[in-house]
Amino acid sequence: MASPGEGTVKVSHVEKKKKPPARYWQGAQEAGKDANNVGKGREQTAKGLQEKKAKTQKPNKRKREGGGRDGKKLISGRSDPFPGPAPIPEARVQKFKRKEKMKRPRRAHHKLRNIIVRSEEASEMAQKQAARFDLLLPEDAGFLEGDEGEDTCTISQEDIAEAVDITSGAKYFNLKLSQFGPYRVDYSKTGRHLLLGGRRGHVACIDWQSKQLMCEINVMESVTDVKWLHTEAMYAVAQKKWLYIYDSNGIELHCIRKFNDVLRMQFLPYHFLLATASATGFLQYLDVSVGKEVTAICTKTGRLDVMCQNPYNAIIHLGHPNGTVTLWSPNQKEALVKMLCHQGAVRSVAVDKTGLYMVTSGMDKKLKVYDIRAFKPLKSYFLPAGASCLSLSQRGLLSAATGDIVQVYRDVWRAPVTKPYMAHRVQGTVWGLHFCPFEDVLGVGHAEGFTSMLIPGAGEPNFDGLDANPYRSAKQRQEWEVKALLEKIQPELITLNPDELGHIDQATFEQRHQDRVQALGFDPLAKEKFIPKFKKKGRSSTGGVERRKKQVAHEDQREIIRKTVEDRMKMEKERKEREKKMVALSSQKSALDRFKK
Amino acid sequence: MAKGSKKSLKTRSEVTNTGAVGKPVMVYDEENEGDLQEAGGNITSEVEEDCDHERKRQKLLEAISALGGGRKKKLGERSEAAVQVSEFTVIAEGEGDKIDLSDLIGTVKKTPAVSAKTKKQLKHLQQNKKTIECPLSKQESERIQRDVAFQNAATKVSCWKSIIKQNQRAEQLVFPLNQEPSGPKPMERVVAGWKAQTTLEQEIFALLSANKQPINDPILTPIETASLRAMSLEEAKIRRAELQKARALQSYYEAKARRERKIKSKKYHKVHNKAKRREFLKRFDEMVKTDPASALEELNKMELARMQERMSLKHQNSGKWARSKVIMAKYDEGTRKAMQQQLEVNKELTQRQVTSLNDEHEDEEAGDDAEVMPDIVNDAEQGLDLSNPWMRGKLSEDPSEKEMSALVSLTAEDDGTAETTEKHEEVEETEEEALLTEFHSKRKLCSAQEADTVPVIFVEEEEEMEIEEENKPAAEDLDASDNEEEELSEFTNLFQVKAESCRAAEAEQAKAASDASHRDTSAQLEEGLMTIRTLEDVEFLSLEKSATGKTPIHPQPSPTKENPTCITQKAGKNRKRKRGIELKEVLTKETKVIQVPFTPRIEDTEDSDENLEQRGLIREAFAGDDVMSDFLRDKRMQEDAGKPKVVDLTLPGWGEWGGMGLKLTRKKSRRHRIKTALPPPRKDQHLPSVIISEKRNRSISLHQVNSLPFPFENHIQFENTIRSPLGRTWNTEQTVKKLVKPEVITQLGAIIEPMAREELMKDKKQVFVGKTK
């Protein structure tokens, strides 16, 4: 978009001259450029197409450039109609982009230049390849669409179950378990297994798709929370007093007495950490791969019954009765961040899969959406009854429970929402909500049992077979377990910004030394204190000892003084030299000195 | 003399006798050498028994004399009578003179036997005055030879340099090096090594060759090569000349442009621009007739420029210059005119071009103009007539307060402009509103000061409380949504003011530590909080009323007793703070109410535990103030903890006369106070409702790279190079393979020969070929 003025000026100036005769090579050059552009491929696909058109318009003259050199020409002389690699859509490439491309430094060491160029090439190749293979994720997420004038939230579950195919329809079901009180729910990471924990001690794990009961026990104690561990072979149950771990047959494996009065649990799958929040205000981390307690943090904020994890960076979010939400990592004894979110107590917190948004609900009957990276509020909604439980699905659907009603919202962080996407009334007060991974299903645990709801568009349609494969065999599971254990991330690497490991530590020497001292428990650089040796035959009299001490001290001091004096001398010398130089410089006679007075 | 010498010699002989030492003990002077010899003669005559001794002595003497220096002892001539006379030395006349070549050659001329050639040569030699250099020593010549040999070897070896460097820098090396690339070969290469055998093939090739088409490598057809050859020398020359001319002209033009650009005269530029514009318009008119399409394009461009102008703050009297002028505008006709002119320019630039080409977008411009004009200019003009209450108020003030008034008016103007952007209809009311806002700001100041001096105005507070209570039911009557909105804005306002109040209160606390009235800190906090909240409410309501058009009812501002300078300062501060509030108001979003299709049948029970529920209820009941102030206090504490503490090392009475009523001198206390540098700003300084811990994460620093690795110049480069992962989890298999390919691959079983010379030649050839290509 050159300004018109410049253009005209230039044109007029050049056009004054008589037009240079048309050269055959000019045309050839342009053609050559065209060929280059086409070769480059994807960025200039549009341009390339235009040029291709232009080419076809030209008489079918044989072009000699290119020829056999770049192999684009066939032996027959015809040009390849689709030269170069297949183009990739820009948006898809953008999806796999990691940071901005780096500028190549102008005058750099050849090694540096090589490194930069190679790494750029590698990352670009990785990006392109990933974009190319994105084609292999063919499934699309579903959605619910009402008739004209019909709200999607008025469509009942029964209608949906009738409309969809039989297997999907079977995913809507109710379990009537009115005896053992409100239920907590958890799905395993692959989404195949369901864990139910009734308040009055009933624990059941089910392969919910085949409706096969794996085990069912009553622990004869109140159960506050249940959680699957890394596989469906083990789960943790927070009971009245202590934390228990059972296997899928209902056999008690461990009773962990270090973890008492646990109210909520979260499992960090890539770190193999079980984080628990207790009624005594302790946030504890248990490494389930080695069975050790990693840290116990006293939060000093009272009863902790609101907890969730940020799947993006494995930070634990806790909600408190004073309206704040605090963020915790196992590496710091104080909260990383403390946000005032509500005027009343916080009732529930949820963080989305990408780690961008946090949704909170509080006693002030508000539902707030935060940008959790900038810690800024994005949206604020008023729910007439307030939301007691929140859960976010893989595709970003938000489910909120108000009393016995489960509402599901779509895109709470983008457009302001006025109506729920779906709503459903269950029999009793909702106690636990959990979206099933890789399925369009929401599990609701309530006072009268469990309800599995169909929520179109909730689950991620494409799964990563190496990460969480819903259809894996026992052998695959075993292999996955070994690999996952090998790739376990250490708890020290949990930070607010997971990229932090790729940054250079820019701390000062003192800071680093301090860290070292703290880590070692002593100062490795500290000087040893002089303790005079005991001498016999009365030579170790108090005066003698003192004298010896003094001697050593003097010696040290002398050393220091000598050093400082030397330094000073050096400095002085340098200064003098500089001065001399200056004098020499200033005393140089210039031709203009003669005019000085 | 002779005697003495004799004696001495005697002693010498004794010495030599006793110890047969070759070392000279005495040093002889040069002068008495002759005497010595004489003495020596005497001694020989005296001591005859031992010739051996004599000889030895002679030798010794010689040695001694040799030690004396380079000067050789002159042997006596034959003519003289001496003991020692050399028989060989015949001293001629000119003994010391050099022999010239001419002396020797001189005889040649006379002798006829010498050939002419030699004569000539000799003559030549004679003329040549140069002396022939003596040959170098063996060592030196060897050294030179070695040097030359080294250089030769170095040049021979250095031809490998490039290839070695290339191999060193290569991403991957596959040994053995000279390998045929595997994989499919291009068709052409295969064809090249293939010959037509069947008759059909032969015929085809014959046809091709008959038509002068390339057979195996279609680089250039013969016609094309011919055409390539066709470019003659003259043509090339002509072209070169043309290019030269063009270049010269361009340089002239550039020089001219540069010269013109350097002209500083504003008037020149003004005239120049005007002329340009006129010309452009003329051309545009022509274009409309001749080429409407391009004219439309031009028009679009103009429109775009206009849009940009409208968007930008140029010529809107908002720059530094304009602001400096605004102050003077009231008193100076010239500046006012200048500002008006500026606005004129703006109007002109933002005016829509009315053309016959596109008249579909013709609508009013009046609205724009109203927006564009900053009200302050109008104010200044209207300030002359006394009917304007705004100006009346100002003019009645003391001259000392003029400064202040200007500042206040500035703030007023700010507010005014903000409002104009908000609504169109309010443009006319700006003056009133400005007045209002000024009152508000004053009142706020007063209230702030009142909060500082708490006990004086209790009654007023109560009144305001009442007002608030009156207002509250009215507010409750409104919709739920409205209520929420209000609450939210209130919340933010509260936040700010509370933060300030807390700060103020704490400062006060520090000051009045010894105050008689012992107040609980929390109580004080609460109080300050309450007052401000009420004030805010009242203001908020009054503002609303004014907006709706009702007569604003607000208490008369209490007369300010402070000196004006203080007020101006505070006003400035206030303005800054205002901006802060605006920033935070952006953060909080208005609440949306969500309609739910069902109403919950079962009442929400937070916890079946009775007391827990109760606690929750209590919490809910007392939600609001206590939560926020707690949080603010917490944040304040954290901030304070992060600040460096001033260490005071003064020892009172030290180095001074003792006694009662001792006062520390300021100088001394200052000298002993150790201040540390301020830490970097907190991460949460712009987030009022967030506390971010500033503690360093030690655990991850153990795993981080803690110093920049070698070739990198800055950490961004390094971080960028490691930004993309290498593992299988994040990459496709192909990519992983490429990313982790080994630096050196050796083929199993293949013999890796040292690099042959042919390799070098091949490389060179390739380069050469590449160049020709």
UniProtKB/TrEMBL annotation, chain A:
Task: Kindly indicate whether the keyword Cell wall biogenesis/degradation belongs to this entry.
Answer: no
Which Gene3D superfamilies does the UniProt record give? YVTN repeat-like/Quinoprotein amine dehydrogenase (2.130.10.10)
Q: Pfam families attached here?
A: BING4CT, WD40
- Which GO CC terms are listed, alphabetically? 90S preribosome; small-subunit processome
Q: Where is the composition biased (Basic residues)?
A: 55-64
Query: What positions belong to coiled-coil segments?
Result: none
Q: In which ranges do the WD repeats occur?
A: 339-380
Looking at the record's lineage, which domain of life comes first?
Answer: Eukaryota
User: Could you provide one GO biological process annotation from this protein's UniProt record?
Assistant: maturation of SSU-rRNA from tricistronic rRNA transcript (SSU-rRNA, 5.8S rRNA, LSU-rRNA)
Residues covered by region (Disordered): 1-89, 536-558, 570-597
Where does this protein have compositionally biased stretches of type Basic and acidic residues? 40-54, 570-582
Q: Which UniProt keywords apply?
A: Nucleus, Phosphoprotein, Repeat, WD repeat
Query: Where does this one sit in the cell?
Result: Nucleus, Nucleolus
InterPro entries (UniProt xref): BING4_C_dom (IPR012952), WD40/YVTN_repeat-like_dom_sf (IPR015943), WD40_repeat_dom_sf (IPR036322), WD40_rpt (IPR001680), WDR46/Utp7 (IPR040315)
Indicate where this protein is primarily found: nucleus
Domain BING4 C-terminal, by residue range, is 420-498
Described by its record, this protein's role is as follows: Scaffold component of the nucleolar structure. Required for localization of DDX21 and NCL to the granular compartment of the nucleolus. Part of the small subunit (SSU) processome, first precursor of the small eukaryotic ribosomal subunit. During the assembly of the SSU processome in the nucleolus, many ribosome biogenesis factors, an RNA chaperone and ribosomal proteins associate with the nascent pre-rRNA and work in concert to generate RNA folding, modifications, rearrangements and cleavage as well as targeted degradation of pre-ribosomal RNA by the RNA exosome.
Subunit structure of this entry? Part of the small subunit (SSU) processome, composed of more than 70 proteins and the RNA chaperone small nucleolar RNA (snoRNA) U3. Interacts with DDX21, NCL, NOP2 and EBNA1BP2.
> What is the protein named?
WD repeat-containing protein 46
TrEMBL record, chain B:
Which compartment or compartments is the protein found in?
A: Nucleus, Nucleolus
Name the residue ranges with Acidic residues bias.
476-489
Q: For this UniProt entry, what's an example GO CC term?
A: small-subunit processome
Basic residues bias: start-end ranges: 1-10
Would you kindly state one Gene Ontology biological process term found in this protein's UniProt entry?
A: rRNA processing
Region of interest: Disordered: 1-26, 349-368, 462-489, 548-574
**Coiled-coil region:** none
Q: Is Phosphoprotein among the key words of this record?
A: yes
For bias type Polar residues, the affected ranges are: 559-568
Keywords, A to Z, come to: Nucleus, Phosphoprotein
Give the domain of life.
Answer: Eukaryota
Family under the similarity heading? Belongs to the UTP14 family.
The protein here is known as Uncharacterized LOC113123900
Q: What is the lineage of its organism?
A: Eukaryota, Metazoa, Chordata, Craniata, Vertebrata
